[in-house]
Amino acid sequence: MFVSLEDVVAGLHATGYVADSIVTTTVYLATKLHKPLLLEGPAGSGKTQLAFAVAEAAHTTVERLQCYEGINEEKAIGKFDEPLQRLCVELKAKSNGVDWESFQAALHGRQFFSAGPLLSALEYQKPCVLLIDELDKVDHAFEAMLLELLSVWTLTIPKLGTIHAKSIPFVVLTSNEERRIGDPLRRRSFYLRVEHPTAEREAEIVALTTPDSSREFHAGMAGIAKALRGWSLEKPPSVSEIIDLAQALKLMGTEQITAEMRDILLPLLAKTEADRRKLLLRDGFASLIFDAQQYGREALRANAA
């Protein structure tokens, strides 16, 4: 997927994903050694976005398996298209001299199988990025199903047989740590801890999406992000939500958040009723803005150093 480490650095930078040397080196080694990349950290810290950034940098496609409680192998791997099989049987039944034994075998061929993300990822001629998102939402039995894929890059499917990879995908596993991922998957993976960015780095990220704004504005957005995340909210803001806030402020024709803007900005800042009530507390929002301004000035000084 990448010729060199420099290729990874340049590619991720071109996508607008701000990554340090640890991330870029780990991505490069994982692609070369065909190792899955396990990303753990809080929701909204940029884990999923890294997978899309790698795909964009490598000029390839993302096959995404969104995990959820109760997901089964059919959703992940795929299943036979039974309506299509029945239709084909009905049409064949009208013909004379049908070799039903051969036809039955044909009914369980690849052409009658609707592929899920795992199977699709193995069938690309050029390696894709296979994103297995929020793996912590599934149980250990589902994890075990992934081991064949991540060990020998094959999938054994009843009646269909064993499917070998045409190309080896770059696999990204993400976890918000609702449940501990098992050791068998950890052994096979390279591991990165992904936290919310520092204020200095978040200012860089905001700058990429609002390049026509001032350095003070970018630092201010990083400051409000750090202040909100320090308030023990039920739903602290993700990086993407801070970018949304920055773009909303630009549309409103301002680069500064004041205490008087509280009610207007609440729908952007508070995503649960408990958080909304917390920000509505007397002098609470004014205190938040004060903290944000302090953090913003710190970020500005750090980026200027």
What do you see in this structure?
- The protein is α/β, with parallel strands linked by helices and 305 residues long.
- It folds into three domains: 5-77 and 117-193, 3-Layer(aba) Sandwich (Rossmann fold), CATH 3.40.50.300; 78-115, no CATH class; 199-304, no CATH class.
- The chain has helices spanning 5-15, 21-33, 47-57, 73-76, 82-93, 100-107, 117-122, 140-152, 183-188, 199-209, 215-229, 239-251, 262-269, 273-279, 284-304, and strands at residues 37-40, 62-66, 78-80, 113-115, 129-133, 154-157, 161-164, 170-175, 190-193.
- It has a five-stranded parallel sheet with strand order 2-5-8-1-9.
- It is elongated.
- It starts with a helix and ends with a helix.
